[in-house]
Amino acid sequence: MGPPGSGKGTRAKMIGKMYRIPVIAAGDMLREAVAKGTDEGAVARAYMSRGELVPDDIVIRITEERLSKPDTENGFVLDGFPRSMRQAVALDRILKKQNATLDTLLYVTAKPDTIVGRLSLRRSCPKCGAVYHLRDMPPKEEGVCDECGGRLILREDDVEEIIRHRFEVYEKQTFPILERYQAVGKAKEISGELNIDQIPGAIEEILGKPQVL
Ligand code: ADP
């Protein structure tokens, strides 16, 4: 977990690559539902465009369904879930059902000014979820996704007023659940202010060296 623009998604993707496990990003799954044009997608979009959390029932159902797929058997990274107390309780239930345990909750810390500066320069691929930063991590070809060739966009919630609101929502609804994981010694902090090349080392320090298969 981490505030919007803290580099949460970048770290989650790196963990996925390093440990060869799937990255399950709640925001990406919700944006997929929006793109599909389902009723649920329409509800999700209304909340997302305002920077509010999408109702728990929807997010929990989508995440639970994703976690039931066989590729999660050797582990997975959740990016952006849980984000509320009800989601945290639901995650406990889902993990128990699957005989899985949570190893670590990584929380990313970053200053509000870093966040606004980052998000307004962020460009995202609506097709595959890849994320770029116009100054720090630009795509090879302007406006085109390196991974899938999709056309990059500025997300409709990556505008200053909505970014500030998302930050407030994070502090009010998401940050308090950290205590739950701190109480059992599973919460570990990772800085959101690291350069890209410093991130793998910081991750290894916390999660250990990836096994060579
Ligand atoms: P960021 O972390 O930069 O805000 P995300 O893609 O993780 O980006 O989330 C974007 C939006 O998707 C959130 O502002 C919220 O509206 C919705 N969302 C993502 N994850 C959740 C969740 N676990 N519960 C409710 N809403 C969520």
Q: Which strand order spans the largest sheet, edge to edge or round the barrel?
A: 1-2
Uncertain stretches of 5 or more adjacent residues: none
Helix content: 40-55%
Shape: globular
Q: List bound small molecules.
A: adenosine-5'-diphosphate
Per DSSP, what share of the residues sits in E-state strands of 2 or more residues? 5-15%
Structural class: mainly alpha
Number of strands: 6
Instruction: Provide mean pLDDT, rounded.
Output: 93
Radius of gyration: 17 Å
Q: Please, could you describe this protein's structure?
A:
With 213 residues, the protein is mainly α. It is built from nine helices and six strands. It has helices at residues 8-19, 26-36, 39-50, 56-67, 85-97, 112-120, 160-174, 178-183, 199-207; strands at 23-25, 77-79, 105-109, 122-124, 131-133, 187-191. The strands form three sheets. The protein has a two-stranded parallel ribbon. A two-stranded parallel ribbon has the order 3-6. Helix 2 crosses helix 3 and helix 6 crosses helix 7. The longest helix has 15 residues, at 160-174. The chain is globular, with a radius of gyration of 17 Å. The two termini are 28 Å apart. The chain binds adenosine-5'-diphosphate. Adenosine-5'-diphosphate binds at residues 4-5, 8, 26-27, 30, 47-48, 51-54, 59, 80-81, 83, 87, 157, 166.
